[in-house]
């Protein structure tokens, strides 16, 4: 499984950078894409807070990318970790 | 971006099922893969708790898949959502 494909647009930088955490949420349903976007957005902050509990995260090193296509809302969170990130 | 590729082994079932939330964590580093696995495992429980705050999740409808290859530890969380899952 090629994890670089998760963030296709950032494959080049991802292949160069070391020590990253990538989180991807994908919500598939036949429902209202706005509702999906709200759900994903509400999960985003809480998940970032969870990550910050475990890892020293520099907010400047967090990239977010949301994509809505068809029945799927996708949120990508790409975190560049400092050395000794584990708390 | 084809989200089915995130969970290659479950592409068939994922393409049939509706109303799913997929969460994927990928940790890349040149470090100790055991340390990576511990970090991912510790994030898993907290992220599942966060999801449960926003969505009515049936534990029987949660699938976890952890993969360690090279310098990357990957955790896939695949949640089949009930109707009216939003809290």
UniProtKB/TrEMBL annotation, chains A, B:
Pfam families: MinE. The keyword Cell cycle applies. It comes from the Bacteria. GO terms for biological process: cell division. Keywords: Cell cycle, Cell division. Belongs to the MinE family. Prevents the cell division inhibition by proteins MinC and MinD at internal division sites while permitting inhibition at polar sites. This ensures cell division at the proper site by restricting the formation of a division septum at the midpoint of the long axis of the cell. This is Cell division topological specificity factor. It comes from Roseibium algae. The lineage of its organism: Bacteria, Pseudomonadati, Pseudomonadota, Alphaproteobacteria, Hyphomicrobiales.
């Amino acid at each position: 499984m090629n994890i670089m494909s998760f963030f296709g647009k950032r494959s080049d930088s991802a292949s160069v950078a070391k020590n990253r955490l990538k989180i991807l949420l994908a919500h598939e349903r036949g429902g209202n894409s706005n509702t999906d976007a709200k759900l994903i957005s509400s999960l985003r902050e809480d998940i970032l807070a969870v990550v910050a509990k475990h890892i020293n995260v520099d907010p400047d090193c967090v990239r977010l990318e949301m994509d809505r296509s068809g029945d799927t809302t996708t949120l990508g969170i790409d975190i560049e970790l400092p050395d000794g990130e584990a708390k």
